[in-house]
Amino acid sequence: MPELPEVETVRRGLAPAMEGFVIARAQVNRPDLRWPFPPNMADRLTGKRVLQLRRRSKYILADLDSGETALIHLGMSGRMLVSGDPLGQFVHSHPAPEKHDHVVFDMENGARITFNDPRRFGAMDLFATVKGESHPLLISIGPEPLGNAFDEDYLVEALSRRNTPMKSALLDQKVVAGLGNIYVCEALYRSKIHPTRPARRVAKDRIASLVPIIREVLSDAIRAGGSSLRDFRQADGELGYFQHSFDVYGREGAPCRSTGCTSTIRRIVQSGRSTFYCPTCQR
Question: Could you confirm whether 58 is annotated as catalytic?
Answer without folding.
Answer: yes
